[in-house]
Amino acid sequence: MARRVVYLLACALALLASTLTSAAIVEHSFHVQNLTIQRLCQKRVITAVNGSLPGPRIRVREGDTLVVHVYNLSPYNLTIHWHGIFQLLSGWADGPQYATQCPILPGHSYTYRFTITGQEGTLWWHAHVQWLRATVYGALIIRPRVGRSYPFPKPYREVPIVLGEWWNANVIDVENQALASGGAPNISNAFTINGRPGDLYPCSSSQTFKIKVVQGKTYLLRIVNAALNNQLFFNIANHKMTVVAVDASYTNPYVTDIVVIAPGQTTDVLLTADQPPASYYMAAHPYASAAGVLVDNTTTTGIIVYDGATSPKPIMPVLPAFNDTPTAHKFYSNLTGLVTSPFWIPVPLKVDEPMFITVGLGLAACGANATCAGPFGQRLAASMNNASFQFPTKLSMLQAFFNNVDGIYTTDFPNQPPLVFDYTNANNSFNQSLVMTTKSTKVKKVKFNSTVEMVMQNTALIGVENHPIHLHGFNFHVLAQGFGNFDTVNDRKKFNLVNPQQRNTIAVPVGGWTVVRFQANNPGVWLMHCHLDVHLPWGLATAFVVENGGTPSSTLPPPPPDLPHC
Ligand SMILES: *[C@@H]1O[C@H](CO)[C@@H](O)[C@H](O)[C@H]1NC(C)=O
Ligand SMILES: *[C@@H]1O[C@H](CO)[C@@H](O)[C@H](O)[C@H]1NC(C)=O
Ligand SMILES: *[C@@H]1O[C@H](CO)[C@@H](O)[C@H](O)[C@H]1NC(C)=O
Ligand SMILES: *[C@@H]1O[C@H](CO)[C@@H](O)[C@H](O)[C@H]1NC(C)=O
Ligand SMILES: *[C@@H]1O[C@H](CO)[C@@H](O)[C@H](O)[C@H]1NC(C)=O
Ligand SMILES: *[C@@H]1O[C@H](CO)[C@@H](O)[C@H](O)[C@H]1NC(C)=O
Ligand SMILES: *[C@@H]1O[C@H](CO)[C@@H](O)[C@H](O)[C@H]1NC(C)=O
Ligand SMILES: *[C@@H]1O[C@H](CO)[C@@H](O)[C@H](O)[C@H]1NC(C)=O
Ligand SMILES: *[C@@H]1O[C@H](CO)[C@@H](O)[C@H](O)[C@H]1NC(C)=O
Ligand SMILES: *[C@@H]1O[C@H](CO)[C@@H](O)[C@H](O)[C@H]1NC(C)=O
Ligand SMILES: *[C@@H]1O[C@H](CO)[C@@H](O)[C@H](O)[C@H]1NC(C)=O
Ligand SMILES: [Cu+2]
User: Fold this and answer.
1) Which of 178, 383, 551, 564 is least surrounded, with the fewest CB atoms within 10 Å of its CB?
2) Which whole-number Å values give the CA distances from 201 to 65, 301, 377, 515, in the listed order?
3) For ligand 11, what atom is nearest to the CA of residue 130?
């Protein structure tokens, strides 16, 4: 009862605060249920929000409070994650299942309520249960509050470009089949732009995303990679793009003819219609960093049609080769943060928690009497610092944190890998004395407001691959990225402490490393994981438990009364 009063009081205060700053309360309902849909010549039943793929586009202004009532009318357990939102003192609304909440059971509902401050640009929302986000996702657009403008000329129109991935199958079945066998899951059948595969696929010419443009005008494309398991190259025939933001964080303008984007990331680009009136394809296909692995090598397209275009036949751009790591690396590493942005945060110079984290694949024991499809008859797995993350099931970690419940997680996630070896040497890929890993629920506990530095070091175990690592609840500064094993002496000299890009998801270079820093100024439990959905259930995750700071403004409030039970 007391908790409820405190909660209502907190709501009343939030309401008061928002009226004072003229921020709005934006309220929506999500009805999540079966949808029968036709794609690639087949009729399929998918889980979708409000009968559309992608789901509803949400628009707010910085400073607004977003309230979303989620009704789970689907046959599956469900949660929704608001990807990239800081969730300051509202960790109960973050959404990853068994991290900040138990799932919303079929027939039940939960209301997500949080205020969006200190960030502007493109984010997105998606299911955070199994592979459901394949069809349960949508854009979340944060525009400047009234009276403030973009740090670039106002575009004529804004166009969300949400890239997705499609299976001619039930995605939960695809995932469960792989987890049962211990092997790799089936690859997808198509990529999509705003839910549409585009006319290079069979039966899809009427399912092609099109935009009309006026010559001379500038458009803001808000690109989201909502695909499950693939980074994507994206380009537009005969046009250059100017990147102005990534992960809802402004960048210095960067002119490019190719964008590469990892699952979880967003990229805002300005596109000027400066070509002769005609039709031009936009296209996306994978950046597949791992050699010798089967990938969905198809191409999704949309069409940009100029006003007054005479020929209906669009011009096709040339996409980079699937394994074009130099092009991907150039794009990823050339971006810099806009220090004149009102939301710029200087790089914290004093590090309280230095961490070195190996990131990569491995094998877990197959289990007595079982037959497994992974190498050496074992089960494919993944780990950070050789800890392969297993989600709890009895209670969420955030509830365990708030109520001091033991036995849900342990706080012994190591600051260093247990073994120093030649991490990126592919000769070690199948070294049986290195590849085995074990399951645990180890998290890293840090004091409120401490500065965490992470050197993320990819390994070559089982395969060499670029892993997009997503941190919930924070943006980090990306200080440097490179190939090979991180060299503490020489690579530290390359840190950009002046204007590094700020992100929530970093694509750690294939056979390489990256260094990030963030200030743990938000109490709660914050998952950090690979955003390739094939690797998350294998264990490529951990979490930060950020302690309360001892004042009301640095203490996690109690959960909302309708938080789902396990
Ligand atoms: C979703 O659908 C419900 C039921 O039709 C409707 O009340 C709600 O406004 C819709 N939400 C959005 C965001 O479109
Ligand atoms: C939803 O679809 C699943 C199969 O994908 C089916 O088992 C279930 O009965 C359907 N539920 C409803 C309410 O139609
Ligand atoms: C995965 O692919 C195999 C081989 O094509 C097929 O037999 C199986 O049914 C697929 N699994 C699912 C869940 O669609
Ligand atoms: C895609 O992969 C298939 C199967 O490996 C192959 O036959 C085809 O040539 C590839 N297509 C492209 C465009 O690389
Ligand atoms: C951009 O990338 C290229 C190729 O990786 C590199 O040579 C160049 O120094 C980078 N420029 C900046 C400003 O980072
Ligand atoms: C494995 O098989 C043996 C012999 O059939 C049986 O005794 C044992 O209980 C099984 N173990 C497990 C974990 O299923
Ligand atoms: C396997 O890795 C260990 C640890 O780094 C190393 O000592 C050993 O030589 C490696 N074995 C092979 C066959 O490379
Ligand atoms: C990998 O092993 C081969 C064969 O033993 C050797 O020639 C090569 O130098 C090794 N590569 C590295 C990077 O250690
Ligand atoms: C990981 O831990 C397992 C034991 O669980 C051990 O066999 C293996 O050598 C370790 N590998 C690394 C790379 O630390
Ligand atoms: C967190 O630490 C920074 C210095 O690193 C300081 O400027 C800031 O005021 C602190 N914030 C809080 C809420 O204590
Ligand atoms: C759904 O969630 C409940 C509560 O956590 C759990 O007991 C159940 O096993 C889950 N169902 C599936 C299919 O994961
Ligand atoms: Cu990964």
Assistant:
1) 551
2) 41, 9, 37, 40
3) 14
Confirm if 142 and 115 have CB atoms less than 8 A apart. Answer: no
Q: Is the CB of 256 under 6 A from ligand 5?
A: no
Q: What is the rounded distance in angstroms from the CA atom of residue 504 to the CA atom of residue 513?
A: 16
Q: Is the beta carbon of 33 within 6 A of some atom in ligand 1?
A: no
Mean pLDDT of all residues in 93-103: 98
Report d(CA 328, CA 270) in Å as an integer. 19
Q: 379 CA to middle of ligand 9, Å?
A: 15
Binding-site residues, ligand 11, Cβ < 6 A:
77, 102-103, 105, 566
Give DSSP secondary structure letters for 316-382. Answer: PPPPPPTT-HHHHHHHHHH-BB-TTSTT--PPP-S-SEEEEEEEEEEEE---TT----SGGG-EEEE
Compute the distance between CA of residue 333 and CA of residue 394 in angstroms, rounded to an integer: 41
Q: Give the ranges where 56-170 is alpha helix by DSSP (H).
A: none
* Tens-place pLDDT, residues 133-173: 999 999 999 999 999 999 999 999 999 999 999 999 999 99
Distance CA 175, CA 326 (A): 32
The DSSP H or E segment spanning 177 is: helix 171-181
Q: Which ligand is nearest to the CA of 200?
A: 4
Domains of the chain with bracketed CATH:
21-143 (2.60.40.420), 157-333 (2.60.40.420), 353-554 (2.60.40.420)
170 Cβ closer than 6 Å to some ligand 2 atom: yes
C-beta of 186 in contact with ligand 3 (< 6 A)? yes
